[in-house]
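Researcher: Next sequence.
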Amino acid sequence: MLLFDLGVLITSLHFVQPIGYYSVISKRKLSTTPTNRPLPLISIIIPTYNERARIRKKLKNVFEKTKGENVEVIIIDSSKDGIEEELREFSDVKLIKQQNRTGKIHAVKEAMRQSKGDIVVVTDADAIWIDPLSNALSYLNGKVGAVTCVKHSYGELENSYRDFYNDVRVGESAMFSTPIFNGEMVAFNRNLITPEEIPTVGADDSTIATLLSLKGYRAISIPTMRVVEESPKKILEYLSWKTRRGSHLVRHFLRNVIKVMRSSNKDFKIVFAEETYLHTVGPWFLIIGLSLMLFSAPVITMGVIAIASLFMVNKRFRKIALAWIPNQIALILSQFFAMKGEVIVWRKELK
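Model: Next structure:
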């Protein structure tokens, strides 16, 4: 039974460690105070690829949520879907056409070079802002160099995950910074980071948060800046979507973990180390632990799993399971994808 006991220990560690982290971090509340100062020129960048069907809705949402603010909206597009036709009624929107599809990060960097605002905002075409943009931008003062949103989804499966995810991001922000930003709304002060500093591959949104944190500026998630994003409805498309995003984060953490651990910011080091563990090592504890249990005592293990599944009738337990298990699978797959090397352009999943 030695292998079985070892499997139980490893599996228990997989669950107990993040539960402990969540129970501590989720209790932290953001104490940073927003300012009421007038906002400077805001450059809003929307990278697009085959987004003609969504762009009108997106632009109307952006202008509605920035009413009264001084904004320039830049769409940088690399598709041939005729998006220009949808922009005829938006004469104040600047369109940059790319001849070749080179990926989101290249698009963002090029749009940054052609933008003029003191504040740069990057947002996805399929993201709908629930709250005014000023709810987030009013925090950009002093040591706060970048802000992001909290995410919600139209899909129940993704929302089960997002509820816990948002609590963690805000709690990490309360400590100092969160190393994970959301591409649905990322905003930062232009003078703190240049396009050349952003790597051409990987998680551009989270990289911005980490780079600024290493410079001593805070990168925080704003609970009053809520955004709804579309998620794939078909399970295989959903898994592909999660794997793609996960692989970017895996490479982001592995690329930056040594730099962060050598920095002097204790609070950010704690958060970054924890998130690196959760995205790289933690998922394997579940696989290895269960494998040892099944190999050494398959009948007992199946009985334990059957008993655990009975708890699915409890709504909160079911919500946690739906949030946790699919993401562990996606993170395992993400690591295999990350091992292939950097991928600049991905297949777009159907939403």
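Model: Residues 258 and 302 are 40 Å apart (CA to CA). The domain at 42-234 is CATH 3.90.550.10 (Spore Coat Polysaccharide Biosynthesis Protein SpsA; Chain A).
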